[in-house]
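Example: Peptidase A1 domain-containing protein.
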Amino acid sequence: MKTILILATLVAILYSKTYKMEASSTGSLIARLIKANLYHKYLEERNLRRSQILKKGSQPIMDYYDDFYTGNVTVGTPGQTFALVLDTGSSNLWLIDDSCDTEACDGYLGSVYTRRKFNATASSTFYTVNGTITIQYGSGWCDGQLAVDTVSFADLTIEQQEFLDAEDIADIFGYMPFDGIFGLAWPAISVGNVTPPMQNLLPSLDAPLFTVWLDRKLNVSMGGSGGLITYGAIDTTNCDLNVTYVPLTSETYWQFSIDGFSVGSFSEINTEDVISDTGTSWIGGPSYIMDAVVDQTDAQYNWEYGIYTVDCSTMMDQPDLQFTINGVTYNITSEEYILDLELGGGQVSAPSITQNFAPV
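Written out as structure tokens, the predicted fold is:
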């Protein structure tokens, strides 16, 4: 049975409309970097960035480990189209200004992605506002000028959306196959007191919610259809009609309580807060939980690639990950949480888990 998580906002409805936005999968970043012989350099920069953040660590951080789900968003008049990460783990919208000519802004050749940058002077509706900001993520940062322009997507238009017109970005973003980020979380974690796009959407929606359906592909691809976000309605085509609601524990991230977790013979019954983050495609948790997953799947750590691997032949036979939320248990089968990265040597699959995930 397919299950669904509804992200609902508690704001009044003014108009009756529903919008659908296709999501594209960029494929596996790890697979791209391995093939381009850039993965070790990427790991070095990622680990350096993490160590710097641990020393500063004052802003909310969101980490992007591997796969990205993007949607086409048009900005400006006439419109310029960008592939932006649809991210429920952050709240700001940002693009790369075309004045930035660093390798990171242009995109490294090994990333196999042609980056698009925003030409502010070509838009008749663009204007800047007072202030520059820096947005900090677990894997990097971006900074630049706060600006306002027309933003369109999914047959919807926001006439005056505030966003970051980034004039500089972290080197590690040069490897990542996107043009910016479209934040869908709450205003509390928006940098610069910017009103997030979702809050500006509410007056145009039939219902104050949006549905995220991510279409998991068994084999890692280098792009293609990745799912659908439906604004203002439940996606009855791709998702179960049985909807279970759970209250948020904090209006920051999409954060709620989980009652328990089990995998194989391991079981943990304890109430903890978790977040649903479409910008982070790996499952993260406390080290003892991740150790249990490693133990129950008989995964081995691959020092060359910095990931856990299992034998390819066991990919479809690993135990389910079971999450209990508000009294309902949701099963994630092994074909959903193990990725085939084609590493060779019979160890071609990696459990998509990490012990280093934690909003700060």
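The first helix runs from residue 29 to 35.
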